[in-house]
Amino acid sequence: MLRTLAAVAAGVSGSDLGFNLHYSAPEGTESFPVILFVTGFSGLAPDFTYSDFVQKVTDKGYIVVGMDHVKAPNYPAQGADFHNIMEWVKAGNLTAALRDANIDANPDLDRVAVMGQSAGNHVVGQGLTDGCSLAKAQIMIDPVDGFDPFGMVHSEDLITPGEKLKYTTPTLLLDNELDPAHKLLFPACAPAKLGAPRWFDATAGPLFNVNASKYGHVDCLNNFYIAAGKLLCPTDKTTDKDAYKAHLAATIDTFLTGLYQGQEEAFEKLEDPSSFGVDVTLRQDLKGVSHTDIKPGCTNQAMIV
Fold this sequence. Notes:
The protein is α/β, with parallel strands linked by helices. It has a single domain (12-303), classed as Alpha/Beta hydrolase fold, catalytic domain (Rossmann fold, 3-Layer(aba) Sandwich). Helix content is 28%, strand content 19%. The termini are far apart.
């Protein structure tokens, strides 16, 4: 069941949380893994435009905390807000917030993944650079770095080409063939030099990359909003968008099942194109570790003494 609530409670140290929080949780009082999700354009994309995709993830047995705002992008500030929300969750506040939203599910704080779509990944990555907090894994959907689509303003870039990110965590990168394509009068929504290839090269932890060959940057949105999004981002009108959203949810579940339950066969599926419900191309960079050695967790330079 999908339930949402705009969070107005105080955040860390009594300050505002910086994002509106929206909750989607399975029925029941069991303990479920948590996914903290920042929407596109640094969170400016409304959470409700992703509700069909989020519901499919929830149906797999995850509590999803969606985050959006109505602010101009400011990646250092919004990254700090995201880190503070991780700390807010770590302090036990999420359970109370779920109860206020009339949700009985309990968050398992030992199984928390962080996720972004498009430039929401820039916010998440900045937050992890500030500190891993309770994050155990990262899921990147159509990631974009930088402040502008032309890559002309570098003051807020998270990634320095040729260098790795400052944190290390198991990572799933979900992208598609139309991400770097552009409309006639507009730049690409995920330019190649700022999009998935840039993140693949910069990721420091073991990485699985699943590229959905026939889909586009806005195809994870509810079908109604794809019609508006296609004005800026290319999409193929002949493809099954519900199948794509189901693919994203199933692949996320496979990745997190491999991590949280130590199922090596789940990681093997991420390397086998026949395991997927849509056409995919796959690559991996496991940083020299075996499937057995991929464990949930996160470290960054600030945590290394």
